[in-house]
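From the shared-data thread, chain only:
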Amino acid sequence: MIKVCLVGASGTGKSTIAQKISEEFDDVAISPSFGRQVKEWGINISEMGGCEANFATLSLLVSDFYKQNANCAIKVYPRSFLDGIVFSEMISDESTSGFESVKTRDALFSIWKAACEKYKDQYDVFFYLPIEFKIEDDGVRPTDEKYNELYDKNLKFWMERFNVFQTLQTG
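Structure, as tokens:
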């Protein structure tokens, strides 16, 4: 099975491209949109989302990564372990309290980093989608442009740091 990973800030078209790939090729499985699932659980995943959203996303991503899709030739992931690193890194000190302590955030960051080290080479190709469009507010994803620009900057840093070769996808 070929594992295709789409990476980019919110609203860059990852889910749209995943859908287009599934329409163009036979035997394609698309990893679900975890943000929407976490939101359905009543957990805030916007730029104000914190450790709880991060834990929920981590558990869903790991579970889906190991799910066997015996009948598919291609599996498309609209998020990756790299996203977890960036999201956990961006949980602010001000937004953490009680369960969502700074120590919890730092522990999450370490877990995501270890997961990325372990799994990054198991993806066959990464497609990086830069910010090109104004974000549509769908009630789920972050809409703050400055937040998304910082996310994009941090994502590029971690792709370079983990030596993740990616193909630039625009348009």
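The chain is about 45% helix and 15% strand.
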